[in-house]
Amino acid sequence: MLYANQSQTNITVGLQYQELLGTVMFAILTTVPCCVFLSINGTMLFTLRSKPVFRETSRYILLYNLLFADTVHLAQSQLMYILAVCRLRLIYPVCGFLIMLTNLTNEISPLTLVVMSLERYVAVCYPLRHATIITIRNTGVAIMVVWGFNSLNIITRVLLQSNVPFENSESLQMEDFCGKDSMLIDPISDHYDKAFTCFLFVSAGLAVISSYIGVIVAARSASTDKASAHKARNTLLLRLVQLGLSLSSALHNPLLVVVSKVLDRIMSVRIQIVLYVCIIILPRCLSSLIYGIRDQTIRPVLVYHLCFQWRRSPLL
After folding, report:
1. Count of alpha carbons within 13 Å of 203, Cβ hemisphere only?
2. Alpha-carbon span 221 to 127, nearest angstrom
């Protein structure tokens, strides 16, 4: 009996050690690329503010807004991931603030993609009126509307969460790590979250698809610049892919629930980390890579700043 108990203890300790080692390894594997992409995004943001042509062109201003939201969301997600790996439990108000900031930056991206798609649509279909419609002032108003709309959504979420009787709890300390599902205590908040997410991405998807169809129709017109229309069509396709990747982040938590129910704990943790990299990290880094490589104006300036940054790095 004593030997059996000792063997069971050794097995348990071995599994715990294996789980800890795997968690630390995957934490390093996620933190390193996240830091690299944050550095690239930061360099891209600096690049977009380094020259007047970027500061005074509407599509670059919109790209800056998209990159800013993606960079903040990426840093926020990695922070919450590290807190979960370290098994640090926050109090509900702090977790609520982090979750609301995550929701804000996450929902800025699809709406900004919609505005960027409409800008390309106007550039191709109404080239003579583009400079009149897409001005710096109108672009700033559009960005303010995007942030204002999402801020109203966050205020609505906070008001819904205020119905939860936290004052009746013995402690504000969370029983689990901070996450989106941990804060959806009230069923009404959960239903609102799902309804708003569906409305946001269906509306954004229809807007981008409509812009794409409009560009295709305009490309068949004899008066339209074929090269410009072809380039705009490819750009809108990329925006549609980006929108789909943004939508995939809404599927992250449901996938985690399914994985945790089907697989054992160690394999579940590994799959969760893979999903985190593919669904959370990578989509937030594509904007810098796509526009940094495709855009002929951004590419040389971005490469210069990246090379200058690496030459000054003390590690090199």
Report:
1. 11
2. 13
d(CA 193, CA 87): 26
DSSP per-residue codes, 177-216: ---HHHH--SHHHHHHHHHHHHHHHHHHHHHHHHHHHHHH
Query: What is d(CA 19, CA 278) in angstroms, rounded to the nearest whole number?
Result: 21
**Residue 295: exposure state from Cβ atoms within 10 A (0-12, 13-18, ≥19):** middle
| Residue 57: HSE in the Cβ half-sphere, 13 Å Cα cutoff | 15
52, 299 Cβ separation under 8 angstroms: no
When the pLDDT of each residue in the chain is averaged and rounded to a whole number, the result is 76
Inter-residue contact 67 to 48 (CB < 8 Å): yes
The per-residue pLDDT for range 150-180, each reduced to its tens digit, is 999 888 888 877 665 555 555 667 677 776 6
Report yes or no: 107 and 153 within 8 Å, Cβ to Cβ.
yes
Looking at residues 105-121, what average pLDDT do you find? 86
CA angle at residue 235 from 304 to 61, to 5 degrees? 55
User: For residue 240, what are its two tokens?
Assistant: 């549609």
